[in-house]
Write a structure and sequence with these properties.
alpha/beta, D-Maltodextrin-Binding Protein, domain 2, 2 domains, 5-stranded mixed sheet
């Protein structure tokens, strides 16, 4: 169940969002009207409960819809109607947030445009003492100008999976630097197995981790480009070196988010998400391990994306206080449902660290290792990074990785686009 991680290419969910097609968009336009999923009358005085509409995108995992409906039904203080949105969730949500006919509570990833357009309300007041129990990254990704707008529902880290038996046979240890990664990929490549799989585009998905491994960032603390420097250029040049080594699997039956290439033995290493671990464990037993994206060099650092979805309250909701109370009940105070949501349908980390620490399925083996790596090296989504910036960054990566374009020149072009976008946002 991977979540969007803006700049590093297109995730599975982004792809699903964009493949609903014109027919789906037409269906949404016809269905949207005043059909919010909210009961016909709104909660009001006389002691009656508020009526709330909660929107989810259509999850692929069996049982998720039933779980969402069960949580809503169990909430004692409001009537919560769940709207399960297939196809292009982003398009319908964008439309719904423009009016009071949209959701009261909804899931997405925070974007600065949502705040500038007054589409969401701050949620700082519902955390209380629980704030210290959230992974700090999960607060950062939902904070703009010091105000918290979203409550994280799941943490979706991505790592390298590797076959222990193949590493042992080749006398290789998990790579600590990018040069180690390239050398291991070459050594593990045979006429039947490629050394590494990082997506059918050759590695755009690891562009973010490559940047972080050099010490860079998409944006610095002042919301200025943080990627246009010689060390970042070196990191992206290494991705081309890896691609040109002929040790990268291309043309796999499914892309990086699906562990099929790894479990079928097509590659000795694969970049994928924690969500894939149950399938990998079922297929390979104990014959796998995990490691983060290696550091560029001795001056670099290990890194990994920590994506995920968050819950928000619409500023146009007629029942803002009731909506905030429901969000607090479900995603701040309720350990049983959070563990159920994170670990019984997909495989994720509950954002509250105390809840994650008590989750049995995360206590041992590679799962426990990912939890630790996510805490130590996880990097989260950036609210100020727009889709246009992400496209420029992905285009840069494609040109460098696959075409061998000069990284410095490509970074300069991406920097220009990002700087223009930042000027538009911040003046």
């Amino acid at each position: 169940m991977p979540a969007h991680f803006p700049p590093a290419g297109m995730s599975r969910r982004d792809l699903l969002k964009r493949t609903g097609g014109l027919a789906a968009l037409a269906a949404f336009a016809a269905a949207c009207g005043s059909n919010t999923g909210r009961p016909a009358s709104s909660g009001g005085g006389g002691g009656s409960k508020a009526n709330l509409s909660q929107w989810y995108h259509q999850y692929g995992e069996t049982g998720t819809k039933e779980a969402a409906l069960r949580y809503a039904k169990a909430y004692p203080d409001a009537n919560v109607a769940v709207q399960w949105v297939p196809g292009d969730y982003a398009a319908k949500l964008a439309s719904g947030l423009l009016s009071s006919n949209g959701p009261d509570v909804f899931e997405t990833q925070l974007n600065i445009a949502m705040v500038k357009s007054n589409q969401v309300v701050p949620l700082d007041d519902i955390l209380g003492d629980a704030k210290a129990d959230f992974n700090p990254n999960d607060l950062t990704t939902n904070t703009i100008d010091g105000k918290l707008y979203g409550i994280k529902m799941i943490d979706d880290p991505q790592v390298f999976y590797y076959r222990k038996s193949l590493f042992d046979k080749a006398g290789i240890k998990p790579p600590e630097t990018v040069d180690d990664l390239i050398a291991a990929s070459k050594a593990l490549t045979t006429n039947k197995v490629k050394g590494i799989y990082i997506g059918n585009d050759g590695g755009v998905i690891v562009g973010g981790p490559a940047l972080w491994s050099s010490g860079g960032a998409y944006l610095d603390k002042d919301n200025k480009p943080g990627f246009n420097d010689p060390r970042a250029a070196q990191a992206f040049g290494k991705l081309h070196e890896l691609f040109a080594s002929k040790s990268v699997l291309l043309g796999a039956p499914a892309d990086w988010w699906d562990p099929g290439a790894f479990v079928q033995g097509l590659a000795a290493m694969q970049w994928c998400g924690l969500w894939a671990m149950p399938a990998i464990q079922k297929a390979l037993g104990d014959d796998f391990g995990v490691f983060p994206y290696p550091k560029l060099d001795a001056q670099g650092k290990q890194a990994m994306p920590s994506g995920g979805w968050s819950t928000f309250v619409s500023a146009k909701s007629p029942n803002i206080d009731a909506a905030k109370a429901f969000v607090k009940w479900l995603w701040v105070d309720n350990p049983a449902d959070q563990e159920d949501w994170n670990l019984n349908y997909g495989f994720h980390i509950p954002p509250r660290t105390s809840f994650a620490a008590k989750a049995t399925k995360l206590q041992t083996g590679p799962a426990a290792e990912v939890v630790k790596l996510n805490k130590d090296f996880g990097v989260v989504d950036l609210p100020a990074w727009t889709p246009k910036m992400g496209t420029a960054f992905s285009d840069m990566l494609t040109n460098v990785i696959r075409k061998g374009a000069d990284p410095a020149a490509e970074l300069a072009k991406a920097d220009k686009t990002v700087t223009t976008e930042l000027s538009r946002l911040f003046g």
